[in-house]
Amino acid sequence: MSASRNGSALMLALITIVVLSTLMVSFLFRIHLESDLAVRARFGMKAEHLARGGQEYAKWMLLKSLRAGNEPEEDMEERFFVAAKNLQQGVAIREYEIETREGRILVSITPETSRRNVNRLSDADWEQMLENTGVPSRYHARLIACFRDWTDGDDATRLLGAEADDPHYQDLELPVKNAPIDSLSELGMIKGFTRSILHGGRLDQFYNEPELQVTGILPLLSVYGDGTVNLNSANREVLMTVSGIREDQVDRLIDGRWGPDRIPGTEDDGYPNAAQAMAAAGLPADAQSTFSTSDLSWVRVSSVGESGPVRKGIHAVYEFSGNQLTLLSYQEGL
After folding, report:
1. What are phi and psi of 141, to 5 degrees?
2. pLDDT in the model for residue 32
3. Contact call for residues 81 and 58 (beta carbons, < 8 A)
């Protein structure tokens, strides 16, 4: 009887030790987790403030680019002067680094004409862009017609198009805008413009062809700009959407935009005008209205703040007129 009671007491003691140990481990883990969350929150606030500071720094750089001469101003860093000169020429600034005591900021400034204004694309440009992103040609006419019906000013339905009486819009109880789009998010409302068409992926939704993969048109587009393509900053994918342009011409354009030294980020970057860029690439002179070089009327500014392990980003588009910057769109997040 005594041995049985002793055994029970020992078991109870062991259970008590296990429970207390578990509670202690849980308590220590909670303290560690709360401490880690507090540290990340502190870094997050710093990163957010750095990203916002990057937007202001970019505005200052744009204003300086208006008056950038042949020599740096007194107390102006050489690399800042080069960046301002490049902006003056319409050359994009990518991940310009600013070190601070709280972390670092990466600033990118790109003329919005580095993308295609979706409201100004010709049917031929649409065809080229859809082909380049892997959309089968059998869907091109349908997508173009649906876009035209959404953005035109009437209720007449094009062949293969869709107006308000289409079941797609009636099922969604979605009115057709019948006006140019104001935001790229509107594209997702248009019949046929699925998430895959916009962002890339498999054509399973709507098209029921999951074996087909597309890359997405959204990174190539904007709702701002005069419709020209900036030859000093548009990337290869955007340049290849121009109807009739060849890969070898795009290669010469990109190679030549880095000036005689062929080194990006130096003072001689950028074509002085569209005519010279076109001549260097072998483009026909009658296509000059399609292109621009130094237009900063609309600019996209991306600023990333980094503090410790945390990164915060802000993406904004500004209209730049005279020495005034007007905010057109603003989005937080990497």
Report:
1. -60, -35
2. 59
3. no
* Percent of the chain with pLDDT strictly greater than 70: 89
Mean pLDDT of 176-204: 96
Q: Are strands 221-222 and 116-117 parallel, antiparallel or unpaired?
A: parallel
Q: Which residues contact 232 (CB under 8 A, 6 or more apart)?
A: 89, 90, 91, 92, 111, 257, 269, 270, 271, 277, 293, 294
Domain boundaries, the chain: 134-216
Distance (Å, rounded) from C-alpha 240 to C-alpha 227? 15
Taking alpha carbons only, the member of 233, 242, 142, 146 closest to residue 189 is 146
Give me the sign of the Cα torsion angle 293, 294, 295, 298. Answer: positive
The answer to whether 147 and 184 have CB atoms below 8 angstroms apart is no
pLDDT higher than 90, residue 9:
no
Q: Which residue blocks in the chain are alpha helix, DSSP H?
A: 2-66, 78-88, 123-132, 140-151, 167-172, 195-199, 236-239, 247-256, 274-281
Instruction: Indicate the range of 56-70, 171-185, 305-319 predicted with least confidence.
Output: 56-70
Q: What letter represents residue 60's amino acid?
A: W
Place of tokens 């017609």: 145
Buried b (16+ CB within 10 A) or exposed e, 251-278: ebbbebbbbeeeeeeeeebbbebbeebb
User: What is the DSSP secondary-structure string of 195-246?
Assistant: HHHHH-EEETTTT-EEEEEE--SGGGEES-S-S-EETTT--HHHHTTSTT--
Q: Tens digits of per-residue pLDDT, 17-73?
A: 766 667 666 666 666 555 565 667 888 999 999 999 999 999 999 999 988 777 777
Q: What pTM was estimated for this model as a whole? A: 0.83
Indicate the average pLDDT of the chain. 90
